[in-house]
C-alpha cells in the first residue's frame, strides 16, 4: 500500500465504526480508556473523546492515548502499526485498496511499527495529511467545550434540551433565510415539510437559553462555545435532522453570507442518520443520495425521494440496513472530492448488495449535463 493509498484508506474509515469493531462502547463521541487502571474508579465515567469529523481520539487523562484510527487499534489491541493496519484491512476489506504488486506490499511492511519522533505538542495524528512514517503529527485535536469527565445530563435529557432549543426558533417565512432559500429554488412547501428554522433574534435567544440552563450544560450539549455564547451567530439557518416520528435530536446550521467560513456547522456529536431518513422506508424503489442538505432539499422540491449526508466521511457502514430494498442514485458534487466519494460509496453499497447508479453518467456530452464544479442545486439553477 502506497502512502497515498494509506491516506485514502484512513480517510474512508469511520473512527467510530473502527472503535465499535474493537468492542468499544461509543456513546455520543465518548468511550472508556484502554488503560482503566490509570483512572480513578477504573474510568467509570468515559474520558476518551472521539472526533468523527477529524478522525482523532484522545484520552484526557492519559497523555499517550490519542491519535488516528491506526493508533486507536494499536492502543486497544496492544499491537504494532503493521498489525493494526492488517486488522483494518481484514475488518474493512471493501474500503482497502487492492494490492497492485508485490513490491508495493513490501514497501508497506517495511514501515517502522513504532515511530520514535514526537512533536513538542504531543503524539497527535492528522489522518488526512500524513504518511505512515509520520504516525505522530504536530496538529493537535481541538479541545472539547467541556473537559469534565462527568456526564452532566443523561442522553434523554440532552435530547429534550435540543428539542426545546429547536422549539425556540422561528419559521423561515419572511426572513433573510427565506430569501436565501428561494435564491436556490427551495420554496415554502419544502421549508414546511422539513421544519426548517432560523434564529431571528440572536440576543434574545442567547439570553433565554442562559436563563433556562446552566452554562456548563449548554456547553456540554454543544449549543454554546467556550466564550459562553450561542454558537450560531453567523449560521442562523437551521436544518433539523428529523427521525421517523418527525422529532429532531440533531441539526446542521448554515451561514447565509458567502464570506463566512465554514459554510456549515454541525451540532456536537455523531450524525445519527442521513438527512430526511423518512425516505428510507424499506419499500422497493429508488432514493437519491446527496452530498449535503441543500442538494437534498432541491430534489425534495422536485418531488424526488432523496437523503443527504454532510460529506463522504460522515457516511456510516451501520447505515446500510436503512437502505434495504432501495436502489441508490449517487449525487455527489462534480469535482475531484465528489468523484472520490462516488467511488467509495459504489464500493460500500456494492459490497452490501445494493445497486447504485451515478447521476448524469453517460450524459456528459449533453448541454444539460452537470458541469465540472457544479452540484445538484447548481444544476437546477440555484445560486452559489
Order of helices and strands: HHEEEEHHHHEHHEHHEEEEHEEHEH
**Number of helical stretches of at least 4 residues:** 13
Quickly give the CATH architecture of the largest domain: Alpha-Beta Complex
- How far apart lie the N and C ends? 39 Å
Instruction: Report the CATH topology name of the largest domain.
Output: DNA Primase, Chain A
CATH superfamily of the largest domain: Zinc finger, CHC2-typedomain
State the name of the first-level CATH class of the largest domain.
Alpha Beta
Overall mean pLDDT: 82
Our Rg estimate from Cα atoms comes to 22 Å
Question: Strand arrangement, largest sheet?
Answer: 5-6-7-8-9
β content, as a range?
A: 5-15%
How many beta-strand runs? 13
Secondary-structure class: alpha+beta
How would you sum up the global shape?
Answer: globular
Could you describe the 3D structure shown?
The protein has a 5-stranded antiparallel sheet with strand order 5-6-7-8-9, covered by helices on one side. It has a 4-stranded antiparallel sheet with strand order 1-2-3-4, with helices on one face. α3 packs across α4 (81-91). The longest helix is centred in the C-terminal third of the chain and has 16 residues, at 336-351. It has 3 domains: 3-134, DNA Primase, Chain A, CATH 3.90.580; 155-266, DNA primase DNAg catalytic core, N-terminal domain (Alpha-Beta Complex), CATH 3.90.980; 277-379, Dna Topoisomerase Vi A Subunit, Chain: A, domain 2. With 384 residues, the chain is an alpha+beta fold. The protein has helices at residues 3-12, 15-21, 69-77, 81-91, 102-109, 155-167, 176-183, 188-193, 202-212, 215-220, 293-301, 336-351, 376-379, and strands at residues 30-31, 48-51, 56-59, 66-67, 170-171, 197-198, 237-242, 248-254, 264-266, 285-291, 306-309, 326-331, 356-358. Helices cover 31% and strands 14% of the residues. The two termini are 39 Å apart.
Amino acid at each position: 500500500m502506497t502512502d497515498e493509498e494509506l491516506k485514502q484508506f484512513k480517510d474512508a474509515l469511520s473512527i467510530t465504526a473502527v472503535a465499535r469493531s474493537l468492542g468499544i462502547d461509543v456513546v455520543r463521541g465518548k468511550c472508556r480508556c484502554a488503560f482503566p487502571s490509570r483512572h480513578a474508579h477504573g474510568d467509570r465515567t468515559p474520558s476518551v473523546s472521539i472526533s468523527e469529523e477529524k478522525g482523532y481520539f484522545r484520552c484526557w487523562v492519559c497523555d499517550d492515548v490519542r491519535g488516528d484510527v491506526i493508533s486507536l487499534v494499536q492502543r486497544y489491541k496492544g499491537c504494532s502499526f503493521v498489525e493494526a493496519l492488517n486488522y483494518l484491512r481484514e475488518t474493512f476489506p471493501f474500503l482497502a485498496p487492492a494490492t497492485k504488486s508485490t513490491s508495493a506490499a513490501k514497501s508497506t511492511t517495511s514501515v517502522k511499527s513504532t515511530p520514535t519522533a514526537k512533536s513538542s505538542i504531543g503524539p497527535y495524528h492528522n489522518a488526512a495529511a500524513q504518511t505512515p512514517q509520520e504516525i505522530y503529527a504536530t496538529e493537535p485535536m481541538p479541545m472539547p467545550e467541556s473537559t469534565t469527565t462527568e456526564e452532566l445530563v443523561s442522553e434523554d435529557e440532552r435530547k429534550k434540551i435540543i428539542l426545546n432549543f429547536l422549539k425556540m426558533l422561528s419559521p423561515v417565512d419572511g426572513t433573510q433565510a427565506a430569501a436565501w432559500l428561494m435564491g436556490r429554488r427551495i420554496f415554502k412547501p419544502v421549508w414546511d415539510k422539513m421544519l426548517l428554522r432560523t434564529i431571528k433574534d440572536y440576543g434574545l435567544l442567547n439570553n433565554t437559553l442562559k436563563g433556562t440552563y446552566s452554562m456548563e450544560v449548554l456547553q456540554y450539549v454543544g449549543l454554546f462555545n467556550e466564550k459562553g455564547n450561542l454558537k450560531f451567530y453567523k449560521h442562523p439557518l437551521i436544518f433539523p435532522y428529523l427521525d421517523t416520528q418527525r422529532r429532531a435530536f440533531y441539526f446542521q446550521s448554515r451561514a447565509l453570507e458567502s464570506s463566512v467560513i465554514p459554510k456549515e456547522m454541525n451540532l456536537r456529536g455523531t450524525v445519527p442518520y442521513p438527512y430526511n431518513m423518512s425516505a428510507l422506508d424499506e419499500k422497493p424503489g429508488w432514493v437519491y443520495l446527496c452530498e449535503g442538505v441543500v442538494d437534498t432539499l432541491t430534489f425534495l422540491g422536485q418531488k424526488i425521494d432523496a437523503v443527504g449526508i454532510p460529506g463522504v466521511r460522515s457516511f456510516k457502514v451501520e447505515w446500510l440496513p436503512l437502505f434495504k430494498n432501495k436502489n441508490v442514485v449517487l449525487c455527489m458534487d462534480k469535482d475531484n472530492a465528489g468523484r472520490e466519494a462516488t467511488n467509495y460509496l459504489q464500493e460500500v453499497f456494492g459490497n452490501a448488495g445494493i445497486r447504485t447508479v451515478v447521476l448524469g453518467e453517460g450524459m456528459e456530452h449533453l448541454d444539460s449535463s452537470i458541469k465540472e464544479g457544479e452540484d445538484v442545486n447548481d444544476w437546477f439553477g440555484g445560486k452559489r
